[in-house]
Amino acid sequence: MRRIPLSLLLASSLMLGAAGSARADGDAAHGKTLFSRCSTCHTVTNQNKVGPTLAGVVGRKAGTVEGARYSKALPASGIVWDDQNLDSFLTDPAKLVPGTTMMVKLPNAQDRADIIAYLKTIPAP
Ligand code: HEC
């Protein structure tokens, strides 16, 4: 499995910032607060709950946390999580991955950017 180094992700998000992308404006501190909407089912440690740990999720292949309970659809999706596909997944999970058991939608684009920025700060356990 290929992992994207965090430094590379940070560098590319800085470049996106320079290009004026709204998505790169994510506020990780606010994202941490918003994570309360996820923490019923997800941790950012090495623990799985109803959903897989989200520590190190950016750059990870979808559906590959050991011991996590996944639908058939998510591991079969072939997705490697990055800003863009996380943004569409969080907009409407079942639209990006029909058959996924992740149901939570974040309709607000800034909230999505903030949560993604927060998730990027958490390395794999
Ligand atoms: C009610 C429980 C629940 C909540 C709340 C929830 N999720 Fe999930 N999430 C899941 C489940 C279950 C899966 C596994 C889906 C599958 O296998 O199809 C998942 C999968 C994911 C994945 C894919 C992980 C991987 O290893 O491929 C991401 C990313 C994700 N959730 C992000 C979030 C974020 C961000 C939030 C908060 C805004 C959130 N989830 C809230 C249950 C939840």
TrEMBL record:
Give the highest taxon in the source lineage: Bacteria
Q: What Gene3D superfamilies does its record include?
A: Cytochrome c-like domain
Keyword Transport on entry: yes
SUPFAM superfamilies, per database record:
Cytochrome c
Q: Which residues form the Cytochrome c domain?
A: 26-123
Signal sequence extent: 1-24
Q: Which PANTHER family match?
A: CYTOCHROME C
Query: Keyword Signal on this protein?
Result: yes
Q: Which Pfam families match?
A: Cytochrom_C (PF00034)
Write down what this protein is called: Cytochrome c
Which species does this protein come from? Hypericibacter terrae
GO function term, MF aspect, one: electron transfer activity
Q: Which InterPro entries match?
A: Cyt_c-like_dom, Cyt_c-like_dom_sf, Cyt_c_1A/1B
Q: Which UniProt keywords apply?
A: Electron transport, Heme, Iron, Metal-binding, Signal, Transport
